[in-house]
Design goal:
With 260 residues, the protein is mainly α. It has 10 helices and no strands. The protein is 71% helix and 0% strand.
Length: 260
Amino acid sequence: MESGNGRVVAAEALGTAILIFGGPGSAILAGDRIGVLGVALGFGFSLMIAAYLIGHISGCHINPAVTLAMWITRKVNSRQAIASVIGQLVGGVGAAAIIYGIASGRDGYQRGSFASNGWGQLSMNGYGLGSTIIVEIVLTAVLVLVVLGTTNAKFPAAMGPVAAGMTLTVIHLISIPVDSTSVNPARSIATAVFSDPDLDHLKQLWAFIVFPLVGAVVGVVAWLVIDDSALESTRLNSGATRVLRDAADSAADQVDGALD
């Protein structure tokens, strides 16, 4: 890897480790004291801290779904995207290993779910796979929309981490009761690896890789509906998508005309 991409790996590993410590770490080590609100804030504050720390180095994706969205929109090239994902996986699993080392020092500790994601019997409230699919696609799309909006040149750069952190907090408040909230394959992989093997978290892990990535694509498409001038600069640019864009613009003009 080029030296620049090496720094991206290191930065994304550090940022993802911070997210895992603050999010799943707070749930595993203090969840019975701070509750859902505390864990949600742990995720949000961690993202905000990491963004201020490494945003100028790697963009602070700390999430393969965000990296996919940034790659689709050509904000990063393929090498940078690969470097980011490698860093996210290394940092996430490394941080989860440290959390496990801390937690296992408590008398009578049973790792159980280890703050992993799941549906059915592994859901806090028994939500099924259908609910998981919806929340992971929709809420990942919301996160991607906020990231794309706050990395726009017109948005005050200093406020981007605050907006992203608040968004992640709200996302967790909504979906922790459903599937313990992923919207981030690296986060899901990191905790599932250390979950009790007698549970099915590793068997269900595929959903928390696939659907956040689908949500990332949905988020990019939604962003292009809002800011269609960006279409030509993305990897979605094609004759077919331009035709769809122009048709949508024509329909919007007709609605405007009817309202005038």
